[in-house]
Design goal:
about 425 residues; elongated; eight-stranded mixed β-sheet; about 10% strand; Beta Polymerase, domain 2; 22 helices; 10 strands
């Protein structure tokens, strides 16, 4: 199976850093092509990410040519044939054509080669097995062009074999379907992923986290999550129930609100009903401290938010801050039904756009002047005063503030006299 097509509208092939790397390596009896995701994205007319390059030149020759051309080279994975070249501040991973002779997990023993067909056949999905040369000719040895046209994500060759080579490909299969696929998920690939889901247990939490945070923000994430849940994969990943209904509702709400997809927010909708869920997910995926804090906040008594009036919402916004307020509120909205009480939820969700919480105006000096000594008592009085100020709906008038200070000191003194 081999097909070629001309890639139009790819000026980065003719000039610029990528063209310079291709020119460096596509000469003197060697050949170089752009491979993988950049070719896929260019054909699908979506923004390019990293531009990776494959070459027949062995790593030592790549380094030698880069040095002669005054280009910085970094041996990022030289034992597997990968050297990173940095041109005008842009990094390009350059990998020598290879064949895997043994695979175990994410590692493999390889031998370098010059066969573009075999190099393509060792990759994961057909849409990632394409390459394009400096003249703009797209080379397809695995049926990727047809699958791009059909928006279909398929494993190259035998799905079970591709998965056995690297179990992370199970998650990548669903992520790529969510990002680039359309229609029904490829059945052969799906069944292979489901039957081999136990292999997920051998993946590192960091790799799972990376894939899931990418998956949940993909365009087709809702249907992909349902397919994963139906196949028992999310139970393996999360160690608990996955809430695909609230997850789909969260996606709908974000679109309604004009919000960019939030990876942690969507992960919360998919996995969190109570704070215990958040802690379990944090451990299983080894989330960062910031991600763990955000997830824990979302799950903290979100059920108290439905039906609250704006005065109470202002107090919540003041206490939580804009990001935590929004995410907890949207979780409550998603879990109670995205299509219910839409106007009320929308008003609460847009509160940060209409009202900015003022700073608490009373200071320690206000209470020292009223006889409260510095130390723990002063901190306690300030907390009581802030609570009273919130309950009074954030007054800023001097007379109202003075009354709050006097009443707080009087209450504190009375309570501690007892």
């Amino acid at each position: 199976m081999s097909e070629a097509r001309l890639l139009s509208d790819a000026p980065w092939l003719g000039s610029g850093p990528a063209a310079r790397v291709l020119g460096l390596l596509d000469t003197g009896g060697e050949e170089a092509r752009v491979i993988g995701g950049a070719v896929r994205n260019a054909l699908m007319r979506i923004p390019l990410g990293d531009i990776d390059i494959a070459t027949t030149a062995v790593p030592e020759e790549v380094v030698r040519r880069a040095k002669d051309a005054g280009i910085k080279s970094v041996p990022t994975g030289i034992e597997h044939g990968t050297v990173t070249l940095v041109v005008d501040g842009h990094p390009f991973e350059v990998t020598t054509l290879r064949e895997d002779t043994e695979t175990y997990g994410r590692k493999a023993k390889v031998k370098f080669g010059r066969n573009w067909v075999r190099d393509a056949e060792r990759r994961d999905f057909t849409i990632n097995g394409l390459s394009v040369d400096a003249a703009g000719v797209v080379h397809d040895h695995v049926g990727g062009l047809a699958d791009i046209e059909a928006r279909r994500v398929r494993f190259i060759g035998d799905p079970a074999q591709r998965i056995a080579e690297d179990y992370l490909r199970i998650l990548r299969f669903f992520r790529f379907h969510a990002a680039y696929g359309a229609g029904e998920i490829d059945r052969a690939g799906y069944l292979a992923c489901v039957s081999r889901r136990a292999g997920l247990a051998g993946l590192s939490a960091e790799r799972i986290r990376m894939e899931m945070l990418k998956l949940v923000v993909a365009e087709g994430a809702a249907s992909a999550a349902v397919a994963m849940a139906d196949g028992g994969l999310l139970l393996w990943l999360f160690g608990g129930v996955a809430y695909t209904g609230p997850f789909a509702a969260m996606i709908e709400i974000e679109k309604r609100m004009g919000l960019a997809p939030g990876a942690v927010r969507r992960l919360g909708a998919l996995t969190v009903a109570v704070t215990e869920d958040a802690r379990r997910i944090t451990t299983r995926l080894r989330l960062s401290n910031a991600e763990a804090k955000a997830l824990d906040s979302m799950g903290h008594r979100w059920w108290r938010l439905p039906g609250m009036d704006e005065a109470r919402a202002r107090r919540r916004l003041y206490r939580l801050g804009e990001d935590a307020y929004r995410d907890r509120l949207l979780l409550a909205w998603a879990r109670t039904g995205a299509g219910r009480n839409v106007d009320q939820w929308h008003a609460l969700a847009t509160l940060p756009q209409r009202w900015r919480p003022p700073q608490f105006p009373l200071k320690a000096a206000d209470f020292i002047a009223r006889g409260i000594a510095e130390g723990p008592a002063l901190g306690h009085v300030l907390t009581l005063a802030e609570d009273a100020w919130l309950a009074a709906d954030f007054p800023l008038e001097p007379q109202a503030l003075s009354a709050i200070a006097d009443q707080t000191v009087s209450r504190f003194t009375r309570d501690h006299r007892l």
